[in-house]
Amino acid sequence: MLKPGELFIYIYSFTVKENRAISILNMALSLGFLFPSNASLF
Predict the structure, then answer these.
(1) What domain of life does the native source organism fall in (predicted)?
(2) 42 in a domain, yes or no?
(3) Which of 2, 17, 21, 30 has the largest CB neighbor count within 10 A?
């Protein structure tokens, strides 16, 4: 299992390559920024 920070870096670097960083970032923000409040979901 990845640490939250590693997961964020992985998603961010992948989406930068795919040129989708903004939409992924908005999705993460809409989910409560994923960490740490929703860490139990992963």
Answers:
(1) Bacteria
(2) no
(3) 21
Question: Is 25 a domain residue?
Answer: yes
Going by the DSSP 8-state scheme, the letter that residue 34 receives in this structure is: S
Indicate whether this model's pTM tops 0.90: no
Sign of CA dihedral 19, 21, 22, 23: positive
* pLDDT band with cut points at 50, 70 and 90 for residue 3: confident
Instruction: Yes or no: say if 18 and 25 are a contact pair by the CB < 8 Å rule.
Output: no
Q: Give phi and psi for 22, each to the nearest 5.
A: -65, -45
Residue 27, domain extent: 4-32
User: What letter represents residue 12's amino acid?
Assistant: Y
Q: What percent of the chain has pLDDT over 70?
A: 48
